[in-house]
């Protein structure tokens, strides 16, 4: 974390500012959320921070799997009004003071206060998705870091990302009647959208996850080339490892195409919602293209540049209302980043 971010985190400890916390934990999603209209912006900000509480309880490297399961289940009890939020935050009082994710979890009471100001029609589906996400994370922590096949991987990715897609679709449908009429068609695509972003995250974070003891590459993928998942990171297995990476890339592309269809179904007059969805999708497309056939993915995290992020945002703001343009831009990003 930079000195500026650390100072910003320390300054936020005394006063809860949800948008400040949002920027600290995810600049990418903050960009999209903050340009949404009024109540939609506040609703998704609060919901996203609730998901980040779950993320911290699952992802942090300071707790054992048993502790994570216990805390995730306690968070579910808080969401169900069966336990006080203080029971959770007191247990998190000694978590890393320099970690923005921990700061959000320690301020779960403030997040819930913000959430309680939202319309009741929004609260129920959001609570349900955060609850089920947390239960799914607890189930996977109890099970351990073993992904046997693609169905296993999809199950995990749905719990940690697909449910966010469902939550967003519920909120969009509440906000706009034309989207509400499309909700049944959007829901399966929302799952695909979540799987798309998470598959790219898996590819981008292959090395980092391996170093913390998790490998999200299905055992069946590695077995097809005669390897075990840990063998993918051995230099002598590079050719076989790249074949497995290619398989993951093809999987991500299938999901991303469905994510694009989700955006194209959003009526054009809801341009800011389309932008909110298009930005992470196109960031993911560019990241995936950068990762394709790139041996460095096995050695370090793959990231697109800030200049690429800015250009994607500018282009989408100008032309994202057009479905034809979205198709063309998707293909353009794939080709342009592949040439870098």
Structure write-up:
With 340 residues, the protein is mainly α. It is built from 18 helices and no strands. The chain folds into 2 domains: 103 residues, no CATH class; 196 residues, Farnesyl Diphosphate Synthase (Orthogonal Bundle), CATH 1.10.600.10. Helix 3 runs antiparallel to helix 16, helix 9 runs antiparallel to helix 10 and helix 16 packs antiparallel against helix 17. The longest helix is centred in the C-terminal third of the chain and has 28 residues. The N terminus is likely disordered.
Count up the domains. Answer: 2
SSE arrangement, N to C = HHHHHHHHHHHHHHHHHH
By CATH, the topology of the largest domain is: Farnesyl Diphosphate Synthase
Mean pLDDT: 92
CATH class of the largest domain: Mainly Alpha
Fraction in helix: over 70%
Give the second-level CATH assignment, the architecture of the largest domain.
Answer: Orthogonal Bundle
Tally of strands: 0
CATH H level of the largest domain: which superfamily? Farnesyl Diphosphate Synthase
The proportion of residues in beta strands is under 5%
Radius of gyration: 20 Å
């Amino acid at each position: 974390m930079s000195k500026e971010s650390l100072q910003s985190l320390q300054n936020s400890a005394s006063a809860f500012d949800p948008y400040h916390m949002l920027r600290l934990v995810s600049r990418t999603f903050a960009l999209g959320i903050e340009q949404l209209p009024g109540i939609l912006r506040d609703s998704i900000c609060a919901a996203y921070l609730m998901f980040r509480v779950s993320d911290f309880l699952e992802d942090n490297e300071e707790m054992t799997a048993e502790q994570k399961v216990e805390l995730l289940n306690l968070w579910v009890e808080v969401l169900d009004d069966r336990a006080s939020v203080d029971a959770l935050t007191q247990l998190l009082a000694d978590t890393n003071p320099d970690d923005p994710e921990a700061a959000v979890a320690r301020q779960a009471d403030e997040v819930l206060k913000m959430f309680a100001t939202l319309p009741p029609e929004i609260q129920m589906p959001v609570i349900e998705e955060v609850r089920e996400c947390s239960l799914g994370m607890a189930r996977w922590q109890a099970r351990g870091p073993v992904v046997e096949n693609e169905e296993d991987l999809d199950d995990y990715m749905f719990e940690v990302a697909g449910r966010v897609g469902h939550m967003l679709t519920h909120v969009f449908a509440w906000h706009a009647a034309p989207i509400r009429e499309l909700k049944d068609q959007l829901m399966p695509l929302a799952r695909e959208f979540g799987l798309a972003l998470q598959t790219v995250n898996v590819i981008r974070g292959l090395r980092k996850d391996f170093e913390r003891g998790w490998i999200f590459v299905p055992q069946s993928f590695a077995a097809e080339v005669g390897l075990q998942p840990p063998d993918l990171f051995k230099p002598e297995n590079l050719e076989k490892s790249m074949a497995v990476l290619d398989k993951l890339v093809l999987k991500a592309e299938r999901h991303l195409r469905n994510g694009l269809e989700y955006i194209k179904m959003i009526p054009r007059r809801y341009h800011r919602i389309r932008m909110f969805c298009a930005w992470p999708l196109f960031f993911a497309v560019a990241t995936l293209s950068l990762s394709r056939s790139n041996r460095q993915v096995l050695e370090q995290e793959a990231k697109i540049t800030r200049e690429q992020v800015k250009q994607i945002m500018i282009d989408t703001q100008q032309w994202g209302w057009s479905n034809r343009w979205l198709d063309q831009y998707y293909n353009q990003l794939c080709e342009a980043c592949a040439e870098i």
